[in-house]
């Protein structure tokens, strides 16, 4: 049997796509998972078991769409029982809850998963993908890889093999009693580890060539989160620990410990040898492309950490090979949220729609019909930006698109912006002349603004005409015509994230839309 879609990996992304395909009921598909349970990654990671994806069941709202802004763990489903917020009230949940949630999601959605099926090789024969798992061979017209980042990303440091890896190191603080510990890496896994060991170690050094970047400043949730940054206090308040800015040049065994040669990037001593009892490597993970043979090996990007992808999440060099989940962050690396469940759940839904458009008989993108008047379009835009979770989470990456053909407009939800600009949304009965793309975005150079510095001259709230310089998240509407952006309107930022004040938000938007529609008619 030849499947329409074969999905490799039953983590959150694989399950999300399977649930969408199952509900749609139009395609033959199967998910292959090497473990005996879905979401097996979360059975061991993060190593210290606390998720940093927020979970807030008490929002004061009964709007399920709005509530997803504060629920970073749920997958998309019409079943209210499949909201992660019903599983725990912990703001930062234990990873074991995620394991239980994903098992329930897989069972209740009827996702077709073959567990205990480890893929050993992937090839392409006569236009079909052949996926081998032991003695079995599965064939499919399209292959979607949702395996996540499953191999350690290891910098090229001589002697690194002597160090302990994040995936294998002990997480019992008593195992590090009275020891000097070096942690290589400056991400959340490194600081999560440092926080766990502070009470028992003699000292901890956290080292890496890049600057520590705080998520509260960059608005990228993969940068260092406040829940993991207690270590920074111990460094700045001179409590034995330190952050070393520079490069580890080599690691050598020295008696019962290790001598590490370190090249500082800012200190006066250019190169120095430091001694430690333990060296831990917390430098993140990368995509494992080893299962692919030469007939369909995907090109890699970003220091070979991710597969290189088109705006449709298709391999740039292997047609029919698509990607889902955290590996899709190659498209918005450290800019938006495709690397995390609360981001890629919407990316997977968009991928499903893209696949249906492409392989399902030109199935149109779901859309609501509107009158092509400034007032009607403005009402639809305001209603969406006040409650959408997808545009909120995938800021600047996903957009709503309003297409206009004569007296009819159509409102399309959650379209990848680069997909729209490259492919468009035209159908046989709707050959639109121009369109409006609606996104939520932070302002220019927002990551250079200290959000807690009251002396910084920030743009005033609710002031029309100044929003283009605002640092905080706010709606942006761009008028597209003849393949290019011809006009842009920013809605004034608002503390309550509601953009419906008549004179502040609605009237300027109606005026902008009116000007654009009038100019397009001429």
Walkthrough of the structure:
22% of the residues lie in helices and 26% in strands. With 522 residues, it is α/β, with parallel strands linked by helices. Strands 1, 2, 3, 4, 5, 6 and 18 form a 7-stranded mixed β-sheet that branches. A 7-stranded mixed β-sheet has the order 8-14-9-10-11-12-13. It is globular.
Helical content class: 10-25%
Which class of secondary structure composition applies to the elements? Answer: alpha/beta
E-strand count: 24
Q: Looking at the structure, what is the overall shape?
A: globular
Uncertain stretches of 5 or more adjacent residues: none
Cα separation of the termini: 56 Å
Quote the average pLDDT.
93
Residue fraction in strands: 25-35%
> What Rg is obtained from the alpha carbons, in whole angstroms?
25 Å
Largest sheet: 7 strands, mixed
Number of helices: 11
Key words describing this protein structure:
522 residues; 26% strand; seven-stranded mixed beta sheet; alpha/beta
How would the blueprint of this fold be written?
Blueprint: E1 2-8, H1 12-24, E2 29-32, H2 64-67, H3 95-109, E3 113-114, E4 121-125, E5 128-133, E6 136-145, E7 151-152, E8 164-165, E9 180-184, H4 188-197, E10 203-208, H5 215-218, H6 230-236, E11 242-254, E12 257-264, E13 271-276, E14 278-281, E15 285-286, E16 300-301, E17 306-307, E18 321-323, H7 341-359, E19 367-371, H8 374-385, H9 390-393, E20 398-405, E21 408-416, H10 417-423, E22 434-441, E23 474-481, E24 484-490, H11 502-521
Parallel strand pairs: 1-2, 1-6, 2-3, 6-18, 8-14, 9-10, 9-14, 10-11
Antiparallel strand pairs: 4-5, 5-6, 7-15, 11-12, 12-13, 16-17, 19-21, 20-21, 20-22, 22-23, 23-24
Helix pairs in contact: 1-3, 1-7, 8-11
């Amino acid at each position: 049997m030849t499947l329409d879609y074969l999905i490799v990996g039953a983590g959150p992304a694989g399950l999300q796509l399977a649930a969408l395909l199952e509900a749609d009921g139009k395609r033959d598909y199967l998910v292959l998972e090497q473990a005996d349970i879905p979401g097996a990654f979360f059975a061991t990671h993060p190593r210290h078991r606390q998720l940093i994806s927020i979970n807030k069941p008490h929002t004061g709202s009964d709007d399920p769409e709005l509530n997803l802004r504060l629920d970073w763990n749920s997958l998309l489903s019409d079943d209210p029982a499949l909201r992660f917020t019903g599983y725990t009230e912990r703001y930062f949940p234990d990873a074991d809850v995620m394991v239980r949630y994903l098992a329930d999601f897989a069972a209740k959605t009827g996702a077709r998963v073959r567990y205990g099926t480890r893929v050993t090789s992937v090839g392409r024969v006569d236009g079909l993908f052949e996926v081998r798992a032991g003695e079995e061979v599965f064939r499919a017209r399209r292959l979607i890889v949702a395996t996540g980042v499953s191999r350690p990303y290891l910098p090229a440091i001589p002697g690194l093999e002597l160090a302990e890896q994040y995936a294998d190191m002990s997480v019992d603080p008593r195992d590090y009693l009275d020891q000097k510990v070096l942690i290589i890496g400056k991400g959340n896994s490194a600081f999560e580890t440092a926080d766990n060991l502070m009470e028992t170690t003699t000292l901890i050094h956290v080292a890496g060539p890049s600057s520590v970047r705080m998520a509260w400043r960059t608005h990228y949730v993969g940068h260092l989160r406040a829940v993991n940054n207690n270590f920074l206090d111990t460094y700045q308040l001179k409590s034995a620990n330190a952050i070393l800015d520079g490069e580890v040049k080599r690691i050598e065994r020295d008696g019962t410990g290790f001598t590490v040669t370190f090249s500082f990037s800012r200190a006066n001593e250019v190169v120095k040898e430091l001694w430690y009892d333990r060296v831990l490597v917390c430098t993140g993970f990368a995509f494992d492309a080893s299962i692919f043979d030469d007939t369909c090996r995907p090109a890699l990007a970003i220091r070979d950490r991710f597969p290189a992808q088109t705006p449709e999440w298709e391999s740039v060099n292997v047609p029919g090979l698509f990607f889902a989940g955290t590996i899709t962050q190659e498209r918005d690396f450290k800019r938006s949220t495709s690397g995390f469940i609360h981001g890629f759940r919407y990316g997977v839904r968009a991928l499903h729609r893209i696949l249906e458009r492409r392989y399902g008989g030109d199935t149109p993108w779901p859309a609501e019909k509107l009158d092509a008047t400034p007032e009607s379009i403005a009402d639809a835009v305001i209603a969406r930006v006040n409650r959408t979770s997808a545009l909120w989470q995938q800021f600047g990456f996903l957009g709503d698109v309003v297409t206009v053909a004569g007296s009819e407009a159509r409102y399309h939800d959650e379209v990848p912006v680069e997909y729209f600009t490259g492919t468009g949304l035209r159908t046989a009965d709707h050959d639109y002349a121009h369109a409006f793309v609606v996104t939520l975005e932070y302002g220019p150079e927002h990551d250079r603004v200290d959000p807690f510095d009251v002396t910084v001259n920030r743009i005033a709230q609710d002031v029309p005409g100044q929003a283009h310089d605002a640092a905080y998240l706010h709606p942006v509407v761009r008028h597209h015509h003849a393949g290019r952006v011809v006009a842009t309107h920013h809605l004034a930022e608002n503390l309550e994230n509601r953009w419906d004040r008549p004179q502040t938000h609605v009237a300027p938007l109606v005026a902008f839309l009116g000007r654009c529609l009038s100019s397009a008619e001429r």
